[in-house]
Specification:
By secondary structure, the chain is an alpha/beta fold. The chain has helices spanning 19-24, 26-39, 43-49, 52-55, 58-79, 81-85, 96-103, 109-126, 142-156, 177-189, 210-221, 244-254, 261-270, 284-292; strands spanning 3-7, 87-92, 132-138, 160-167, 170-176, 194-197, 232-233, 240-241, 275-279, 298-301. Helix 14 links the parallel strand 9 (275-279) and strand 10.
Length: 307
């Protein structure tokens, strides 16, 4: 059955992530060792032992999730090579797009882990803590959420926009804290079931991230990128990247643009995917896929017992 490979993004991390994989599978340990060497500090220790505050630092969270995802992928490749080799597409949620690129052979893992460490720093430094915010809006159509954001920008003179189109019933918004609060209020007035503030340190995937995108572009320009062996369905366009330049440009653009996850899943279904596997920590993407395309079975692979 045609398989889609999915990789999670920031928010799926937890203290202890990857420890059981490393204990049980040499392929996983090799990936964590490679990450430690590439970064020049023990990201493995932060994953396995924390403290949680250190793991939650964006500059650590991003390489930690990438490392865990690729460790799980390498174990899966060793144990079920025919399943992974038969995948028809890869996609990742935000940061997870870098994992998708490694899985598709577009660039080396060691290079990717260094890039996402810098990406995390740039994103954290783009907006002073407390200036921005993100909120998950539940139970309101995406178009209505977008209109509420536009009205809130007029009301406040500040930036707020959709950041993640996660599923038909969940859209995350991001921007200046005052504008996010106003947009949340408007969403509730217009029928949203909930507007839940997210515990994040910066407003990702909105125009406030343009300084981070500008800093990231030369880093990506220096990254050795090849044509992927399978299409990568990108966050920014929900379309297939099949050439090296398309992969690189999409990674640069996605920092300050919304994650079009609903459209990405729909695109992979249109490409012929009839099942999916989420590779990495947590199970958030599996839940989203079930809300977008309930007929597509999806498994989560991130712990030894799941392998």
């Amino acid at each position: 059955m045609p398989l889609a490979l999915l990789f999670p993004g920031q928010g799926s991390q937890y203290v202890g992530m990857g420890k059981d994989l490393c204990a049980g599978f040499p392929e996983a340990k090799a990936v964590f060792d490679q990450a430690d060497a590439a970064l020049g500090y023990p990201i493995s220790k932060i994953c396995f032992e924390g403290p949680e505050a250190e793991l939650k630092r964006t500059a650590n969270t991003q390489p930690a999730i990438l490392t865990h995802s690729i460790a799980a992928l390498r174990v899966l490749e060793a144990r079920r090579p025919e399943r992974v080799a038969g995948a028809i597409a890869a996609a990742g949620h935000s940061l997870g797009e870098y994992s998708a690129g490694v899985a598709a052979g577009a660039y080396a893992f060691a290079d990717a882990v260094r890039v996402v460490h810098e990406r995390g720093q740039f994103m954290q430094e783009a907006v002073p803590e407390g200036v921005g915010a993100m909120t998950a809006v539940l139970g309101l159509a995406p178009d209505a959420v977008s209109r509420a954001c536009a009205d809130a920008e007029v009301d406040t003179g500040k930036i707020v926009s959709p950041a993640n189109f996660n599923c038909p019933e969940q859209t995350v918004i991001a921007g200046h804290a005052e504008a996010v609060a106003r947009a949340s209020e408007l969403c509730r007035e217009r029928g949203a079931k909930k507007a839940v503030p997210l515990p994040v340190s910066a407003p990702f995937h909105c125009a406030l991230m343009e300084p981070a995108a500008d800093r990231l572009r030369p880093v990506l320009d220096a990254l050795a990128v090849a044509d992927p062996r399978i299409p990568i369905v990108t966050n920014v366009d929900a379309a297939e990247a099949v050439k090296a330049d398309e992969v690189r440009i999409a990674l640069a653009r996605q920092v300050a643009a919304p994650v079009r996850w609903v459209e990405s899943i729909e695109r992979m279904a249109a490409m012929g995917a009839t099942e999916a596997v989420e590779i990495g920590p947590g199970g958030v993407l599996a839940g989203l896929v079930r809300r977008i395309r309930k007929e597509i079975p999806v498994a989560s692979i991130g712990k030894a017992e799941q392998i």
